[in-house]
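Whiteboard transcription, Tuesday session. T.W. wrote the structure tokens on the left side:
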């Protein structure tokens, strides 16, 4: 099934939704004594979740504007097809981000919204995500060693998918190619070179990701009466895709029969597939599973380790692909202020002079224009409209800063869309200003250029890197529960962008294809294409 087919499937489900929701009549009433978005919409409240599917932007903007325009901002209920959420005002972001997971949990909010316990085949993999230690500890410690691997894989994958013809332009679908390029680069660092060069594995990993997302979504909206049958069908579909992946992943982990011992054995320099490029998440996961003496022995077996590895790929591919597509569309659309491609190219050229083919932290830190451009694209075109989504875990509920009490189980969030498009926070918020996050953004371009030329520490000319999270930029969440994978994602996208500007001519788009609103998600059009031609060296 082509990648697009999943979107058609999703569209069909979407068209059926009004029927399913009404028939299902699930408990969606606003039991909280709080004002609700869309109160002025003249739509019966039980239909608001359906309204959110098509007019999500109006509903979330309605709340943000109301919160902005009153002295004592208050929470509002936002109706949605996956359930209602309480949207907190932007001034409460630091408070929200500093609540511990035991009180307000991002993980349980995700599980409730996406049904991962069912769709990820083994609930413990998501309810007890021990693999996240691997991201926070091993991935972070090895980021610099991974950069050359990312660069190598991106170069090979882009050449293959975009071609090397220097004569004629080729039209490439961003969805078809960028998902594959990102899946390959991510698989390279998670599972090694042999796995990432397996085209079937890459296709299946993308299908698996889509199947998990689509199934979780469908399960949320189906009426109780047909749930058992439909869940069985959907899980079988996910299992079908996963069975192909597990045949590749499980042999990477070699088990022994002795419990409580390291069950995984590797060749000196890599996993059993012959990967000699260095460590991957295969090794990290296996060692991680031997650290806790009380760990369940099944956690050291290939089926469990392989599924845990798959959750890493799952977290990485969809998010990083959508963000890369947005960045490419933002960069390669004609703008009144002129294109940022020449300046990105100039920065890349300087780095090639300085570092040659070497990719390390010094080089990645020396890309202020790429950082600023990417942060700006994430601000303007980021796909997550609601952010800092949390579930109230405390049995006594939680008292909000204005004294309102929310009972256990309530879902809360803030509006990333409102915040990132607020003219009081970002002047000219609907403009793509690739240098917005550079020092002296408001000063003249000559002044800025001279600062750039004279600065020995190029990071010093950047106000904020692409990975930095703060209360006015919540793309990665904020606080202890913020995204731990963002450092890898940003490295990957910067390397990809540099490779594209240095090696391809791209015909600028007269108009950027509009992103689509699907409830509270803002995703790049599945039909977005670019015309590319290999540059002569
Ligand atoms: C552009 C790409 C990415 C985006 C936009 C993104 C975004 C996010 C967001 C918004 C959160 C929730 C934060 C919160 O609620 O405060 C999150 C959590 C998470 N992300 Fe990412 N992410 C990306 C890439 C990655 C990658 C590459 C990995 C893995 C290597 C990863 C692993 C995770 C994990 C494990 C969590 C859960 C953290 C926790 O619950 O404590 N992400 N991500």
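and on the right, the sequence the group agreed on:
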């Amino acid at each position: 099934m082509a990648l697009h087919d999943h979107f058609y499937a999703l569209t069909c489900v979407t068209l059926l939704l009004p029927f399913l929701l009404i028939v299902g009549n699930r408990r969606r009433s606003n039991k909280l004594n709080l004002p609700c978005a869309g109160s002025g919409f003249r739509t019966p409240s039980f239909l608001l979740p359906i309204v959110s599917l098509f007019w999500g932007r109006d509903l979330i903007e309605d709340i943000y504007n109301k919160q902005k325009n009153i002295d004592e901002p208050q929470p509002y209920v936002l109706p949605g097809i996956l359930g209602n959420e309480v949207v907190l005002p932007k001034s409460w972001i630091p408070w929200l981000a500093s609540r511990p997971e035991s009180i307000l949990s991002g993980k349980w909010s995700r599980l409730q919204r996406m049904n991962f316990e069912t769709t990820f085949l083994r609930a413990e993999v998501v309810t007890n995500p021990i693999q996240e230690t691997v991201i926070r500890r091993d991935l972070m410690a090895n980021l610099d060693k991974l950069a050359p691997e990312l660069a190598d894989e991106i170069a090979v994958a882009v050449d293959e998918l975009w071609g090397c013809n220097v004569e004629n332009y080729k039209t490439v679908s961003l969805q078809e190619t960028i998902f594959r390029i990102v899946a390959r680069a991510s698989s390279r660092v998670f599972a090694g070179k042999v796995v990432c060069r397996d085209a079937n594995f890459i296709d299946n990993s993308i299908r698996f990701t889509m199947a998990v997302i689509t199934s979780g979504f469908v399960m949320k909206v189906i009426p109780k009466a047909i749930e058992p049958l439909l869940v069985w069908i959907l899980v079988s579909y996910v299992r079908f895709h996963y069975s192909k992946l597990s045949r590749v992943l499980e042999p990477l982990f070699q088990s022994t029969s002795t419990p409580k011992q390291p069950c995984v054995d590797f060749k000196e320099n890599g996993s059993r597939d012959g990967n000699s490029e260095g460590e991957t998440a295969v090794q990290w996961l296996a060692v991680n599973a031997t650290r806790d003496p009380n760990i369940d022995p099944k956690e050291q077996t290939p089926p469990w380790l392989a599924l845990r590895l798959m959750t890493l790929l799952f977290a990485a591919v969809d998010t990083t692909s959508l963000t890369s597509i947005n960045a490419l569309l933002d960069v390669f659309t004609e703008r009144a202020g002129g294109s940022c491609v020449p300046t990105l190219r100039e920065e890349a050229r300087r780095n090639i002079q300085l570092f040659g083919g070497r990719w390390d932290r010094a080089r990645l830190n020396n890309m202020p224009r790429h950082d600023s451009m990417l942060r700006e694209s994430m601000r303007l075109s980021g796909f997550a409209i609601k952010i800092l989504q949390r579930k109230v875990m405390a049995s006594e509920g939680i008292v909000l800063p204005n004294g309102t009490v929310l009972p256990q189980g309530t879902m809360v969030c803030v509006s990333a869309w409102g915040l990132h498009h607020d003219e009081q926070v970002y002047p000219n918020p609907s403009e793509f200003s690739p240098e917005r996050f550079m020092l002296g953004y408001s000063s003249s371009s000559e002044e800025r250029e001279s600062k750039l030329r004279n600065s020995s520490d190029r990071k010093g000319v950047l106000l904020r890197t692409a990975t930095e999270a703060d209360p006015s930029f919540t793309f990665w969440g904020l606080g202890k529960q913020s995204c731990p994978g963002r450092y890898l994602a940003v490295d990957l996208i910067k390397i990809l962008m540099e490779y594209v500007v240095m090696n391809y001519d791209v015909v600028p788009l007269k108009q950027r294809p509009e992103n689509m609103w699907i409830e509270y998600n803002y995703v790049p059009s599945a039909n977005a294409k670019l015309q590319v031609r290999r540059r002569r060296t």
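Someone added at the bottom: The longest helix spans residues 131-162.
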